[in-house]
Amino acid sequence: MQTFFGVFLVSALVLAVPVQAAERPAVVPDTMAQRLLACASCHARKDVNDQYFPRISGKPAGYLYNQLINFRDGRRQFPMMTYMVNHMSDDYLREIAAHFSAEHLPSPPAQPSDAGAAVLERGRQLATRGDPALKVPACVACHGDKLTGIAPAVPGLLGLPRDYINAQFGAWRNHSRRALAPDCMAEITSRLSLSDVNAVASWLGLQPLPPDPRPAEVIARPLPVACGSVP
């Protein structure tokens, strides 16, 4: 009997001792950064410049919001993205867009390319001057002189891997990526040959980001084509 009560007393004392802080469950902070770890695992890793998951930090908030809406509403097709945003409200998608727009990660390095000099020169011409014969405006005419985008809704093109840019041209070509009408990029893509797509993607993929990669706040001239996703 004494043994029983001794064990009972020791057990009661053990249970009465406060749990050490190290043994307590961790308190997870309710912040946007914590909530969006799943997004950051693909889009904001500091150690990887993935070929198919673009960096989204620092891109204009309006552009990011438009893309989240497009995934949710079926204008862009990628099952993982659609699953993640399918039940999110417009207001919450705006919060997500604002979070990543305000984040500025170190710029990824430019990727090597095996494209020849003639291909890269064609890509440079398309990016900086366009092709009037094809009615294709220069990339800089919409995406800014530094190709880092224009707030609130035009994305930057530098820092994107060549394969990702190629894939997006392909998505516009086969209509698995769409935007609000008039869909200016779908129209431009339809005028480019596959060799032109490869040329401009190769040239863009080689260009380093400028020291200040933030998007421009204003555009100095009207856009050369009407875009439904640009206010």
Labels describing this entry:
231 residues; globular; 11 helices; Cytochrome Bc1 Complex, Chain D, domain 2
What does this structure look like?
Helices cover about 45% and strands about 0% of the residues. With about 230 residues, it is mainly α. Helix 4 packs across helix 6.
Helices, strands, pairings?
Elements: H1 2-16, H2 32-35, H3 37-43, H4 61-73, H5 79-85, H6 90-101, H7 117-128, H8 139-143, H9 162-173, H10 184-191, H11 194-206
Helix pairs in contact: 4-5, 4-6, 7-11, 9-10, 9-11
Q: What's the short version?
A:
By secondary structure, this protein is an all-alpha fold.
Q: Gap between N and C termini, in Å?
A: 83 Å
Average pLDDT, to the nearest integer? 86
- Rg calculated over all Cα atoms: 25 Å
Globally, the shape reads globular
Instruction: Output the number of helix runs.
Output: 11
CATH 4th-level superfamily: Cytochrome c-like domain
Helix content: 40-55%
Number of domains: 1
| CATH top-level class | Mainly Alpha
Order of helices and strands: HHHHHHHHHHH
CATH fold node name: Cytochrome Bc1 Complex, Chain D, domain 2
Binned strand content:
under 5%
Main pleated sheet:
none
Low-confidence stretches: 1-14
Structural class: mainly alpha
Question: Based on DSSP secondary structure assignment, what is the total number of beta strands?
Answer: 0
CATH architecture: Orthogonal Bundle
